[in-house]
Amino acid sequence: MKEYKVVTLKLGFTNRVQKLEDLLNQYAREGWALKEMPTNWNAIVLERDKNR
């Protein structure tokens, strides 16, 4: 079974890519994987196994 998390992004205007990378790495350490990211960069959907 999977569980999902929606994270609203508040990255600002400077260093957007680096902030996104740091955020994704932080969640990856917790077992989350990127499932979907809309083209307007306002939120991301993360997925992980519920029974891990």
- Which sequence of SSEs, written as H and E, runs from N to C? EHEE
Sheet with the most strands? Answer: 3 strands, antiparallel
Shape: elongated
Which spans have pLDDT < 50 for at least 5 consecutive residues? Answer: none
Radius of gyration: 12 Å
Q: What is the number of helical segments per DSSP (H or I, 4+ residues)?
A: 1
Nearest-integer average pLDDT: 89
Q: What would you call the quaternary organization?
A: single chain
Q: Which class best fits the helix and strand makeup?
A: alpha+beta
Identify the strand order in the major beta sheet. 1-3-2
List how many beta strands DSSP finds. 3
Proportion of helical residues: 25-40%
How much strand? 25-35%
What is the number of domains? 1
Q: Report the span from N to C terminus.
A: 10 Å
